[in-house]
């Protein structure tokens, strides 16, 4: 695993010759490092976990963690919400050079700034290795490392109805109490009518289920087990 991470790190860190020719010098400029903390690298997350580790180490060294994280979030959101973009990125029949030309020359106009060199290098590597369908997985693993480096933990709160600001504040306070001083919760809220009521909360890799649908399922299971 360590050998693979080192190889991936070298590939992402060293821009391919054609990228050096096409990407402007400003793309390679670095910003002051905002966080020198290196989180525990991912283990047992497959090849994309290794790629995320390599990309994180390279980006942290360059000092543009925030910019690359923004790149990956924008790309992920585009993949999830735009069918045309998703088809373009994942169609194996399109050459890597065609995809990279668009990402370098046109995609930046949508983000109002060019994609970072590390982002482009990593995407090109995925295209060359026929792994374009795994971009979302890579972004998810990178975000885990990014939040960990900032002493944060992503939490997903699902509710059947829209929560008020007061409810959200109370949820954040409860999560802070649960996590103690270990990290700060970064909360994402999502409507999920199927849970009927209550909350379904993902705290890292743990789940706190107080949903009505879950309670009904337990009651049903209990009743059925008695007959």
UniProtKB/TrEMBL annotation:
Compartmental location: Membrane
GO molecular function, one term: proton-transporting ATP synthase activity, rotational mechanism
Record flagged with keyword Nucleotide-binding: no
GO cellular component, one term: membrane
Cross-referenced SUPFAM superfamilies: N-terminal domain of the delta subunit of the F1F0-ATP synthase
PANTHER family noted in UniProt: ATP SYNTHASE DELTA CHAIN
NCBIfam families xrefs: ATP_synt_delta
Protein name per its UniProtKB record: ATP synthase delta chain, putative
Species, as recorded: Theileria annulata
Lineage, highest ranks first: Eukaryota, Sar, Alveolata, Apicomplexa, Aconoidasida
